[in-house]
Every structure is written in structure tokens, then in C-alpha cells.
Amino acid sequence: KAQIRNLDFAIQKQLIKSEYLNTLEQKQGAEDWVKRLKQQTNPLVAHEVLTNLIPALKVSKADFFETFVNSGGLDVLITISQFDNNKDKLRQSLLEIIKALLDAPNDVGFHVVAKHSHLIQDIVNIFDNLDIRTKMCCVQILCILCWWKQDTYSQVCAALEKFASTLHYDTWWPILLDT
């Protein structure tokens, strides 16, 4: 900050303006991503868009995540992951996006996921996938969520219980043991 204060006033003004434009660009970028995702009807193209979104999320700031979520981005991701064609690849991309969210600075991604318990349920529902790598990715994400806070631990347990009841199990332990 001291170095910035020592700069010429015009340069300080340019730095502030560029930071403002960068923030504005990120907000527009998140909304544009949500619009692109909402337009997807072809599972193959949707997978390509999801694959392109992952690196964008990995370099984004907290504002991007908040704008993305507030624009309905998570709900669109869940909808896309339910397409019948190319379902395994779409689900794997969804899990990679969730990992990118959880890697966001200042626990922004954890807060986002915790606010959307239906997202946690969708992660658990991916256990019906036959691919062991996909199941292991689910387990990793769920373990991280359980570790983060008591609230997300409770949400994960509730989602596992609901999933177990659909398989007519009394408890959710066999689901994890099968993985």
C-alpha cells in the first residue's frame, strides 16, 4: 500500500480503474457462463462447456463464485448433469467443478455448497454410477465436506440416509463399503 501511495495520482487512478474493470469483467464473466450453460441442450456440447468452465473456476476470485451462484449456476449444473446421454462424463465434470469450488479462496466454495443442500444430495446420488473413479471422487468430496463443519457433516449424513432409503437399506454404510 505504501508503494501505491508513493505513485503519481494519475497512476493511482489508473490502478483503481483497472481493478474496478477487472471486478466488473469477472461479474459479467460469471453471468455469461451461466447463460452459456442454460443454452445447452446437447450433452456433448454441454460436456465441452463444463470442461472449459473448470479452468475458469480455478483462477477466479470470490466475486466470480458469488455471482455464478446468485445467477443460478449451480442449479443449471445439476440440471445438465442429469442428461441421459453422456451422463457419466457430465457427472465427472460436475464433480470436477465442485472440486474447483471447494478450492476457492477463503472457503467461498464451502459456503456455496453448504447453502445448497440439494447439491450435496446430487453428489450422493452419483453413487449409482458404475465407474469406481467417479464413486471415489464422490467419497473424497463428501469427506472434505464432512471435515469442514458440523453443518455440512449433517447434510452429508442426511443425503446418504435418503439415498440409502431409495435402495431399501437401513443404513448408508453399505453404500460406502461397496465403493
From TrEMBL:
GO MF term set: actin binding; small GTPase binding
Cross-referenced Pfam families, in alphabetical order?
Drf_GBD
Describe the location of the Formin GTPase-binding domain by residue ranges: 1-147
- Report the Gene3D superfamilies cross-referenced here: Leucine-rich Repeat Variant
Q: Name one GO biological process term.
A: actin cytoskeleton organization
| UniProt cross-references to InterPro entries, sorted A to Z | ARM-like, ARM-type_fold, GTPase-bd
Name of the protein described by the UniProt record: Formin GTPase-binding domain-containing protein
